[in-house]
Design goal:
The chain has 128 residues and is of the alpha/beta class. It is built from five helices and five strands; from the N terminus they run βαβαβαβαβα. The longest helix is centred in the C-terminal third of the chain and has 18 residues. Bound molecules: manganese (II) ion.
Length: 128
């Protein structure tokens, strides 16, 4: 597998800058979306290997974007990791119910974040 392409969906500039830096340093190709509509468009246009999904985003929230991507044959196999500052009880469960493959609370722990990204990409690799 060549350079993996990762779509970051994030409306917060600081979070976006951090995650983007970590991924680019690790050698991944990065594409970004700042809201739910852009996320849907980028997912279809770019067909990334992994999507990092902020759940609280403008236009269409991350739960609905995930539901819609997981219902679409073209995008349903792309792993999605929810990345969210919302850590109310039930949030993880709700994220998994709409189809997220992993869930990580913000602020992220860098080592755990890297590991989870690698795990999800590996799963993707063995599937395809
Ligand atoms: Mn947000």
């Amino acid at each position: 597998m060549g350079k993996a392409k990762i779509l970051i969906v994030e409306d917060n500039a600081d979070n976006l800058a951090l995650v983007r830096l970590l991924l680019e340093r690790a050698g991944y190709d990065v594409v970004i979306a700042l809201d739910g509509l852009e996320a849907l468009r980028q997912a279809h246009d770019q067909l990334p290997d992994l999507i990092l999904m902020d759940l609280a985003i403008p236009e269409i929230d991350g739960w609905d974007v995930t539901k819609s991507l997981k219902a679409d044959p073209q995008t349903k196999d792309i792993p999605i990791m929810a990345l969210t500052a919302r850590t109310l009880p039930g949030d993880r469960k709700h994220a998994m119910e709409v189809g997220c493959d992993a869930f990580m609370a913000k602020p992220i722990t860098i080592a755990a974040f890297r590991q989870e990204v690698e795990n999800l990409l590996k799963k993707r690799e063995t599937k395809s």
